[in-house]
Batch of 2 targets.
Target 1
Amino acid sequence: MAESSDMESLQESFRKFAIYGDTKATGQEMNGKNWAKLCKDCKVIDGKGVTGTEVDIVFSKVK
């Protein structure tokens, strides 16, 4: 099933971003800095339509 492998791939990507730069992180939760990095690396932040500030606001409201 493609859905299962897609979900596993998504979860692995989340874990990698969640532990990036934090030796104590478990990979179960993500901080705002790593969320912003994920958005930047995935080209969600383009500086015009979506800015870093907007990504920070979304993170704050959802967490």
Target 2
Amino acid sequence: MNLANKITLARIFLVPIVMIFLLFRFDIGEIHVGAAKLTAGELIATFIFILAAVTDGVDGYIARRKKMVTNLGKFLDPLADKLLVTTALISLVELQRLEAWMAIVIISREFAVTGLRMIAVTEGHVIAASPLGKLKTIIQIVAIVSLMLNNVPFSTISFPFSMIATWLAVIITVISGVDYFYKNRKIVSLTNTQ
């Protein structure tokens, strides 16, 4: 259990905390910004989500720089990412800030690519994160944060930033998923011939 893995585990432990502050109504005040309303709990949840998202880059950097890459880390890191994003998306559906079908598209893509990676491993291949996949992650985080903040501060000028960011996240999620399967189609076809 090295430092990088400990940071990844900390990200996993932050997941239920994000959900609790996002979904449970604590009587600790509200903030009104234009037409939008935010609870203090939602602000706390957003801060914790951003902190957790930042640790994703930190643990990977430490693991590579300090040569701490382990099989446990290879398993925990994508698991932590998927838990964080999935929890946030489902919570946002519950808050009626995200359409359920959008959450389903994003989550389904994550499961599909994870399945592809598992097939690749059985064939002795490792599918590294692509630049498109990394872009997808950044856009998803921006969209989730904007939804958690209920489009603040853009709500003051009636600019639908959250909606635009969410549509971009869905589109890039689908494109990156198709890209992974297209670039690794030989792995899939190899398993079909055996």
